[in-house]
Amino acid sequence: MAPLIAPHVPNPLTDPVVSPAAAAVTAFHRQLPHYAATPLRSLPALAAEIGVGQLYLKDESDRFGLPSFKILGASWAVHCALARAIGLPQSVSLAKLADAVRAWNADTESIAKGEKKELRILGTTEGNWGRAVARMAQYVGQVPCRLYVPTFMLPATQEILRLEGAEVHVLQGKNYDDCVAYVQAEAEREGSILILDVGFDGYEDVPQWVVEGYETMLVETDEQVLEATGGHVASHVVVPVGVGSIAQAVTQHYKGKSPNLYKKISKVITGSTRTIGAGGATTTNAPTTSHAEALWDGKHGIKPEQQTVVMAVEADTAACLRASLAVGRRVTVATADTIMCGLNCGTLSKTAWPILQRGIDYSVAVSDRQAHAAVQHLLHGSSNPRNSINKMKTTRRTTNSDNLGGDSMADDAGCSGGVAAGPCGAATLAGLRQVCSDARDVMKLDGDSIVVLFCTEGPRPYEVPFV
Ligand SMILES: Cc1ncc(COP(=O)(O)O)c(C=O)c1O
């Protein structure tokens, strides 16, 4: 399939969403147990091999003790949805909200009389999302959480969801898209709170909160890239796409007009308190020209030609973004099994689509074989296995449905010095290689490029594709 190049257009829709939420969301995440910024890892050998200046990987293999980034969005969405359900502001602290939720559900008399509804969360999942929602339901006052899951989910995965406190129902013969339709109807019928990361007609607030939640990862990334590069921003970022919510967050972050990042660059470069305010107004107490100002266009925000290039990677068995970009509207594609389970979605989120359509610079689909090779390359730090200090013991398993973290590959990575990633996370490296081979010049990937791969999951067992 030929790659698709979307027009390089800054998206004016996104700015009002991103900037105000970022501070509230990062403050919220700091209230959750075990908050810590995930590491940004430098991959110099792979950078040299691929022919880019610097290559970094944002490693989401341990986010609040879970093996993927999803809890960032799930936590904020659950918090906002419960706060709204009981009439509290989003700014309520996690502890206060949990108390209020507990008190609400403990009022069984009013619930029995039908004066109010018991707070209950419903969702669907292929693994990571449901685990994150269930964990969050426990944090916010042990709200009952029920998850409907596709047939192909392994019993072991279901068990992990149960261990997080969720009630799990397998929908026989159903895929992910079917589960979304089913749980939507169930939530409506019983008046429960539907927590999904995919938007559709009449269901837009929750997925928008999910996207806002991912902002914490991006704020951390910017700070880490600034520090690692001595004050530069990423020139290119690569993000995986399932329903498109994480790609939406990445796109609106890098194509938006938020001045926050540029304030920080200014500080790093000048070492002063000189700042660039909203709309580009500069307050000065150190007369100097900064990289930030070179990038900043007072009228439009970040100059379009200086904006970070956003590249999207899908599984070639579920490439709904590519299909939608090709025809200029959101379309559903038939999906097939893939080791990139989290990317196995046939329809983009309604809320993500307009932003991806206008902001994604390049879209590529990769095969299971490419993703598996990328898992190995990350583990070895190179595509040359001799560069690895450690022998890799990839275990052949007969699972393809669990992206909840595994043990076999984590053991390998623990002593190799490489990065242990699951196939969805490693897909971004596979995608970068593909873009470099198809469109290096068009995407201006060269020795000056500073590339960030969003590696969205840690290692887990999967069936190794034939190579
Ligand atoms: C590990 C992992 N990476 C990427 C994605 C894709 O995220 P989104 O569905 O927001 O596009 C998912 C979704 O489940 C996932 O689990």
From TrEMBL:
Source organism, top-level taxon: Eukaryota
Name the UniProt record assigns to this protein: Acetylornithine deacetylase
Lineage of producing organism: Eukaryota, Fungi, Dikarya, Ascomycota, Pezizomycotina
Pfam families xrefs: PALP
Positions of the Tryptophan synthase beta chain-like PALP domain: 33-268, 303-379
